[in-house]
């Protein structure tokens, strides 16, 4: 188990062994913290045949869970873009039946925020009237998207962001050379940071931000920077963090930079006035919002990014 999960896991385990956990649980926290693994470990403990010492790892139930073949453990939500009412109705039917091994049933709903409203309403009855020792574990990185009536029927277990030093030590143990900046661009998420580093994205970030801040000195970089920004929405997040650091530098604020490995780029952009940097930052934030799904008619991404980049380039040329 990931080291930062230990405090939450120990509290959950005490609840299992004392039989104090409710029949509806919500494990929440930002993406990339290992909530799925935590839910799986909890299910193992709940199904273990030796409750006072769960999970024992030796009983038949523990062996079946480890093999992924426990007949009383059911998982939904791993695939697809939504969780529909049919999947929840089928899960509710299964959970209403008697446990095959006689030690309760457990269902894990991963990415629970993807449930449609109809599916969430269908789940309410199961939460209100659980059958026998049935336990429902909801896992969500966006709990604010869940129905309030659903949340109110669950014990909530928050997986907090771990201390950056813990994460950096763990990443080093995984063979990844991570900086505080790499962790910052991934919002402190250990697993997202590891994927980011393994994909070589950190080098791409450093190159992009260096070229962006040098648009005045090398105008020919414009097309390449624009193309890179269009590749993935996260690239705009990198730029926004750099602008925030530049604004902090321009204002003379003595505080750690979010991207301390891009200090030279921040200094170059800090030649712009705080008013200009604030405007550019606000425009980029609005651009990011308009690119999010469900924001109406699709926009011409290339045109909008081009206009924003041109504005930045002109500001740098006249600074």
UniProtKB/TrEMBL annotation:
A GO biological-process term: DNA-templated DNA replication
Keyword check for Nucleotidyltransferase: yes
Substrates-to-products reaction catalysed: DNA(n) + a 2'-deoxyribonucleoside 5'-triphosphate = DNA(n+1) + diphosphate
Domain spans labelled DNA polymerase III delta subunit C-terminal: 202-313
Alphabetical list of Pfam families matching this protein: DNA_pol3_delta2, DNApol3-delta_C
GO CC terms in record: DNA polymerase III complex
NCBIfam families named among the record's database cross-references: holB
Protein name: DNA polymerase III subunit delta'
Organism: Oceanimonas baumannii
This protein's encoding gene: holB
């Amino acid at each position: 188990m990931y080291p930062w999960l230990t405090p939450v896991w120990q509290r959950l385990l005490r609840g299992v062994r004392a039989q104090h956990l409710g029949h509806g649980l919500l494990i929440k926290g930002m993406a990339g913290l290992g909530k799925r693994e935590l839910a799986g470990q909890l299910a193992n403990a709940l199904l273990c045949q030796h409750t006072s010492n769960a999970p024992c790892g030796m009983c038949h139930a523990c062996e079946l869970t480890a093999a992924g073949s426990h007949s009383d453990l059911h998982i939904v939500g791993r695939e697809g873009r939504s969780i529909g009412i049919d999947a929840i109705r089928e899960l509710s039917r299964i959970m209403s039946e008697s446990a095959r091994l006689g030690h309760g049933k457990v269902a894990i709903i991963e990415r629970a925020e993807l449930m449609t409203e109809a599916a969430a309403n269908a789940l309410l009855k199961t939460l209100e009237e659980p059958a026998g020792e049935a336990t429902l574990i909801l896992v969500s990185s966006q709990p604010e998207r869940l129905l309030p009536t659903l949340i109110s029927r669950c014990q909530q277990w928050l997986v907090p962001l771990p201390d950056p030093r813990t994460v950096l030590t763990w990443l080093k143990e995984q063979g990844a050379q991570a900086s505080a900046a790499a962790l910052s661009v991934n919002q402190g998420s250990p697993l997202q940071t590891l994927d980011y580093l393994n994909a070589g994205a950190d080098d791409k970030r450093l190159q992009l931000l260096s070229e962006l801040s040098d648009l005045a000195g090398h105008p020919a970089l414009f097309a390449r920077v624009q193309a890179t920004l269009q590749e993935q929405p996260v690239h705009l997040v990198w730029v926004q963090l750099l602008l925030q650091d530049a604004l902090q530098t321009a204002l003379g604020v003595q505080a750690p930079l979010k991207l301390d490995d891009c200090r030279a780029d921040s200094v170059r952009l800090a030649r712009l006035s705080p008013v200009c940097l604030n405007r550019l930052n606000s425009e980029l934030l609005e651009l990011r919002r308009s690119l999010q799904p469900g924001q109406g008619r699709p926009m011409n991404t290339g045109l909008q990014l081009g206009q924003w980049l041109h504005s930045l380039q002109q500001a740098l040329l006249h600074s």
